[in-house]
Amino acid sequence: MSSNDSNKICRTPVTELTRSSFLHHRIMADPAHFAFRKMILDEITPVVMVLPTPLVEQGCQKNGLSFVQMLTPFCVFNNIDVPVRTASDQPYRLQKFKLRMFYGSDIRQPNIEVTKERLEKVIADAGKGEDSDLYLDPSPIETMATSSEPEFVPAWFQYFNKELVRSVSFSDHEAFDHPVACLLVVSSSDEDPINKFVDLFNTNQLPPLLSDGAMDPKIPKYFILVHDNQTGSLERATKILAEMRNTFGSNDCRLLCINSSQDQLIDREPNPWDPYGSNASSGQNLGCLLNHEDVDELKDFVRNLSSKDIIPNMEQRIRVLNQQVSATRKGFRNQIKNLWWRKGKEDTPEVQSVNMYTFNSIESQIRVLGDYAFMLRDYELASSNYRLLSTDYKLDKAWKRYAGVQEMMGLTYFMLNQSKKDAEYCMENAFSTYLRIGTSGKGNATRCGLWWVEMLKTSGQYKDAASVYFRIPGDEPLHSAVMLEQASYCYLLAKPPMLRKYGFHLILSGDLYKKCDQIKHAIRAYRNALSVFKGTTWSHIHDHVHFQIGKWYAFLGRFDVAMKHMLEILSCSHQSKTMQELYMRDFFQILQKTGKTYSISRLQLPIVNISSLSVVSEDHRTYGSLAAASVKESVWQSLEEEMVPSLSNAKTTWLDLQSKLLPNKLKQSNICVAGEALKVEISFRNPLQLSIPISNVTLMCEYSANEALPDANSSSEIQGDEDGKIATGSESSSDTSLFTSSEVDITLAGGETTVAQLSVIPRKEGLLRVTGVSWKLSDSMIGFYTFDADLIKKKISKQKRKAKQDANKLEFLVIKSLPRLEGVIHNLPETVYAGNLHRLSLELRNSSEISVKNLKMKISHPRFLNIGNPEALDVNFPSCLEKKESCAHKDADLDATKLSETVFHFPKDTIIHKETPFFLPLWFRAATPGNMSLYLTIYYEIDDKSTAMRFRTLRTHHMLEVLPSLDVSFFISPCSSRLQEYVVRMDVINRTSLRNFKLHQLSSVGNEWQISLIESIEHIFPSGNLEPGQALSCFLKLRNVKTTETEMDVWLGSGSSEAILDTKRAPLVNFHHYERLHQKTSHQENQSTVDFMLISRMEETETVPSDVPTPPQIFSHHACHCSVSTKRPIWWLLDGPRVNHCNFSNSFCETKLKMTIHNSSCFVVSVRINTFDSPPGGSPSGNKVGWHDMSTPPSDDTKKLVSLESVPPFIWSGSSTTRVKLEPNSATEISLLVTTFAPGTYDLSNYTLNWNILDSNSSREKEGVCYGRPFYLTILREE
Predict the structure, then answer these.
(1) Contacts of 335 (CB under 8 A, 6+ apart)
(2) Taking a C-beta distance cutoff of 8 angstroms, is the pair 621, 699 a contact?
(3) What are the distances in angstroms from CA 872 to CA 301, 893, 1112?
(4) Omega before 1067 cis (within 30°)?
(5) N or C: less crowded end of the chain, CB within 10 Å?
(6) Nearest to 729 by CA among 778, 676, 685, 787
(7) Which residue in 441, 432, 378, 382 sits closest to 409, CA to CA?
């Protein structure tokens, strides 16, 4: 024992003043006002043993009650008001009191199996009583955390805990369950009643506590004679009572009359025996033969027994025991003596024998004294005796008794409202000691733990209470489940709430309930845990909880509620494939068992991606495909702005009529035409790793036929249809006269996202609303998603006028049927090589009875697509492109004067009727590699003035993939020996990976340039096939001639069997025109340039059968604006005789030369010509003498101009400096004269041209120097 315990034992008894003050305080603050204190006052109360005869029980059973049950309702007194004086002389009054009555056969430790069955019955009965609550939504976690405990904690927990506490009743080491009195009950109908009383207290029939010596057999006995007024006369009962008093004494004998109701059965509301009549048959009215006099007599009997017999006897017993204990154990001398006597027992094992502590041992008497004082509310006296006894048991190593005393000390500290720390210390000590004992102490540890938990709850220590619940031993899983659930509520009531532990312990509890087949309790625990995991990222726990609840509800046959939870696990994308298969299998099994068809809003399988919603409705704008509808409206507007009549210029359009004739609520609606499909695209995503099929995917619509768009010639008032119909999506299948919705079936692979293309076709004028989309996951599961207007942000505004339409509504005004053109381009390839030329055909059809006229068309990329001659449909391609001998043929495809026009006007007499297609030839050329979007829009007018809509447009969109073919580049350098002549190097590379090309021809476009090969193509390219990855370079001569007879084409093929293609004819000239516009840059505007067109053919593949005719693959590659100018703006040519004969006998020799200077820039250039005479002895090539190469110009570093060393010097006659001014792209000639004095060969390159650009703001060079080129003049002596 600790020093604190020793100090407590050595304290002197309290004074009378202290005891009086305490008693007054106890009366003023009744502990029963607190829940736990009330529990203690109900459990630790005096026990009365009842020994009745069979006839007594038989008479009581007429009321559906036993004798004990008949008395039990009257054993609780809330205001008994009995004066009590225990060990002190200061009395106090006892207000609340309770008796516990038990048959002698029940005063024994409960059987383990019986106790287990009783506990299971409590739980099972509680489950039956919660049927209605299982189908209600659980309370929000926020509400539960702020409410008091009884509001959400199941009430049956109290009954379960009481049964656990009573499972260790009537222990030998505790005295508060020992009877304080015995009632011997005999019926007046019994034979020889006096002997019956004697036989009842036979030792062989007494409880084991008496026979084992643990309890004093000398307990007060009271002899009760029960008289049944229905079976005997009162005189006999009175006579027997007199005999009893003569035999047993007058004070201990009582007469009790029952069943006095002779005429009718008494029905009481409320019935005091309802909580206790467990043995009554169904429908039996408890206490039906007891009239008011009988009930009053029962009440008086129990009250008198308590106040006049039991309480005074307990007072007397306390005073006697207190004197004995004071004489033998209190005082310093007695304490030293007791410690010395017990010192030798320290090494002995734990005492297990009951005989050591019989009822007459001092330890048992102290325990009886403490328990009696506790039951009579004298907690100070009880506490002092418990402390005294605790040391004895600890020294004796009687651990179970020691733990029991520590447990009672903790309770007395609590009831005294003294130190909480001391109370908790004693309960912890008792709990740990019980557990340390082993199996024999588990039941007592459970009771101690439950009392300890309640003690902690009263002080708000819910976290500590939860840990105690967790420590309470539970050999049975069902008991552990209840403890875990109670612990979870403690975590919820903690400050702050511990929500994670609350949910976790509920899940553990639910699993244990399931193992014990308590499905309803498992459901309750799991459902309460849902409030914790809702809205969190704990997706695996969330799925587990919903899955288990769904299975359990299905087990109970509540398939509707089961489906509600199973639907929560459909989008379990985070789970493994195995778990997903398990979830789906059980889901469909439960769905099949329901036998119902469910329509679920926003079904999570598959997931609808509302952000992908795309709606295409056609008013005056129609689309050839969904791809065209997805193009930005600004793209189409830029194409149509030159074709569609402007609102400011047009007198009346259908938009004007709409604003004038429609009511305000319909002005905000989108427009669609009856008989034309309203198309909707929406994507579905499969969150699972499993493949799932969905069927009957369709749009949900509402149709109102009471609104109609008037004709253009009608009055401004709209007459509504009084008999207008309203159809919804559910009616669409039966009433196809209003609208028709498409249905599609989709199979989604694991993780796949698929776009469903849906449509609805309105059949009549009115108002159509698209409300959502529906689908079938199975025959019994229909999912639907309602389109919320707030979630659809500007899905239609990109296709509607924002000033007129409300983009947040899927509402469409259906107008009457109109003509609608459908167009298709035949033979348009999806994948093509760059430069490939094709002849196509555009087919236009009109399915309406109303014809269309005044057609116009515009193409977004004329580099790719040109319009052919509508009158020349049947032409032979490519022979139609061959050059004709007669040049007078006028190109019928495209007039050169119309190249600048961007809108193509169909012939004026073009009218497209129903079932009469119109064909228009087109030319296609893949201009550049890459992915290309080709847009084409056709404008047409409706040949019916009664319609509100005057015109419509057809928009088509085509995606092309253009692969690289040939890379062609040109490098032009001027010829030094000729003005206006150039050397051209053409480089060609085959960029394909598999295809061969044959070069056909190279043409210079226009009439200014003549082109020719420097070397024969057979020598340069003998094979004729340009294989994949192969490169070719060849040189050509380019000359500026500016004549109509210029040879502009060069044949590059092998042989001359094929005709030259005419590059001046359409479509080649047209495509070249748009290539010039595309390749043009700002700095090339005034430069001298030349255009080239390379024509080639692609060889046929070997995979194509020879008997299948294939059109030849013609390619055209265009190089435009190839500049012939260099960095210096001027070019010059020195011309004159190369050989001159002269007779030097008379004079020197003069030779006349001419220098032509050309300004190739776009600026005015000033040129200064400087000539230099040859210095004597100079050599143009350094120290070289004799014959040597004279073609090398002089070094730029020396800047020296000298003549040959072997000839005499020469001089330039005339002015040594000449200055000229040249206009842009102009030329001039300057005369020069050179004088020689001896025969020989002279290099006349000793001159310079200094140029200066005037008025130039460009970044190019503004001035420079050009040195003379070698010009050799040979002078011969004339013979």
Answers:
(1) 9, 10, 329
(2) no
(3) 128, 8, 20
(4) yes
(5) C
(6) 787
(7) 382
